[in-house]
Design a protein that fits this description.
By secondary structure, this protein is mainly alpha-helical. The chain is 77% helix and 0% strand. Pfam families: Sigma70_r2 (PF04542), Sigma70_r4_2 (PF08281).
């Protein structure tokens, strides 16, 4: 899609144009569908996530920043929805049965590679208590509550750059101390 046409459509969308929304939907649907499907490998889940992504675009159309990449914003929304879907699956009886099956059948290569979500949560709680208070607070607000850096900066009365710095340091520490849970860390954070 041509940059000028896209920017015109985005400006119209910000003003509430359903026609502009439809044009953007048509222009980005295939790209977004391919991106989501490459991560989910499920047509049903992909269709749902793509639909939810565009619903979020419509709801949050006033937040569109013409100076930033719309495609990146769209992909970020979809990525967050995919992560939410994965998190939901961790809390289903079917997934718990699958973990029991892996354990019973010794399908896991090593004990360290088995998914032990309860241990992961306990370890994360312990590591968070070892973080400096501001880092822990920023981590919880950004990564666990899903607030944006701007929202966290406003809430804590600090700059956005300070939010990014605290979050970066917190993530570095968490990754170092929880390296055996790298798979779960990549899913959730």
């Amino acid at each position: 899609m041509d940059t000028d046409v896209r920017n015109t459509l985005l400006l119209q969308l910000k003003e509430g144009s359903y026609h502009a929304f439809t044009k953007l939907y048509e222009g980005y649907f295939d790209l977004l569908y391919g991106f989501v499907f490459s991560l989910t490998r499920s047509h049903d889940t992909t269709a749902e996530i793509v639909q939810d992504t565009f619903i979020k675009v419509w709801i949050n159309r006033h937040n569109i920043d013409l100076d930033k990449s719309f495609k990146s914003w769209l992909y970020r929304i979809a990525h967050n929805l995919i992560l939410d879907e994965i998190k939901k699956k961790f809390h289903t009886p079917l997934f718990e049965d699958y973990l029991i099956h892996i354990s019973d059948e010794k399908l896991a290569v090593t004990e360290e590679e088995e998914l032990d979500f309860d241990t992961f949560k306990k370890t994360l709680c312990r590591v968070k208590t070892e973080l400096p208070p501001r880092q822990a607070e920023v981590f919880e607000l950004c990564k666990e509550q899903g607030l944006t850096a701007a929202d966290v900066a406003q809430q804590l009365n600090i700059s956005e750059q300070a939010v990014y710095n605290h979050l970066s340091q917190a993530m570095k520490t968490i990754r170092e101390k929880m390296s055996r849970f790298s798979f779960l860390l990549s899913i959730f954070f």
